[in-house]
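Fill in residues.
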């Protein structure tokens, strides 16, 4: 065996083998990416295609692109623009409520002492094991008793008082803050709320942003509860899209325009918070 062959054997794969390995890796990644993006590309092309062109040619590049499908969304029985505003308002209220109440609950579980604290925390955390479908019917009956079926209040009320996952994540974050910092502020005359919102919350900003992103995505895509509580009187973007599919099943371009609008805010959110979304996935997986 020659010296060159011996060096190649000892040093691992040759330069040509590494190059082909890299080509294979990038080829596989490209194929997986195209398969993943295919539904989004389909929605994008179809949404800007006129109904006449789609009927004649099927899926194709729109020639020329048209905004007629987006304009038509506001002329239907289900006002898609109104549903988008309702969704935006609901997500905003739920996100603010969940962060506020989760922060206060997590601080109480992490830093305050009271009888039964740990037992109460673990009982609260155990509700994570209960599927949402199990709680939908009792929640509906509760909203019905107070006449909140088909109202915005009924849509957001079950979710604004915090979530077990958020409380758990924030409790673990708050417990990592040195007690000496809290004691120093308390010696300076700061009360509990000032310590919480003046020290603990700023130090936990990355975790709070992560929870904000998870909450926004979850409730923007929420379908079951808005469908049940709305009762065809209050639509959000997911139920409005589903209603359009039922009413205009043969108008594919209109449905794709609605689907594209439903995806657009989350795409913008992803572009703005790419790094934070990756962090949120990592936290969700390993904590």
């Amino acid at each position: 065996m020659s010296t060159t062959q011996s060096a190649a054997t000892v040093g691992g794969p040759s330069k040509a083998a590494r190059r082909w390995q890299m080509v294979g890796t990038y080829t596989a990644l490209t194929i997986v990416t195209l398969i993943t993006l295919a539904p989004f590309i389909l929605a994008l092309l179809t949404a800007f295609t006129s109904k006449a062109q789609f009927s004649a040619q099927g899926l194709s590049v729109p020639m020329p692109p048209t905004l007629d499908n987006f304009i038509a969304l506001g002329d239907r029985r289900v006002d898609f623009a109104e549903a988008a505003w309702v969704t935006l308002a609901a997500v905003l209220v739920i996100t603010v409520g969940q962060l506020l109440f989760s922060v206060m609950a997590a601080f109480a579980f992490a830093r305050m002492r009271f009888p039964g604290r740990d037992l109460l925390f673990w009982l609260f955390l155990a509700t994570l094991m209960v599927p949402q479908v199990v709680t939908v019917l009792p929640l509906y009956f509760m909203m019905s008793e107070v006449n909140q079926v088909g109202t915005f209040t009924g849509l957001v009320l079950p979710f604004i008082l915090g979530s077990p996952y958020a409380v758990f994540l924030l409790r673990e974050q708050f417990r990592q803050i040195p007690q000496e910092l809290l004691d120093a502020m308390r010696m300076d005359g700061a009360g509990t709320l000032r310590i919480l919102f003046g020290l603990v919350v700023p130090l936990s900003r990355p975790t709070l942003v992560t929870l904000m992103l998870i909450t926004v995505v979850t409730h923007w895509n929420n379908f079951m509860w808005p469908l049940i509580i709305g009762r065809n009187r209050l639509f959000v973007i997911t139920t409005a899209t589903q209603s359009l599919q039922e009413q205009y099943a043969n108008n594919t371009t209109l449905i794709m325009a609605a689907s594209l609008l439903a995806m657009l805010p989350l795409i913008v959110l992803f572009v703005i918070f790419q790094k934070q979304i990756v962090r949120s996935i990592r936290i969700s997986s390993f904590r």
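The chain has two domains: 3-70, 77-286.
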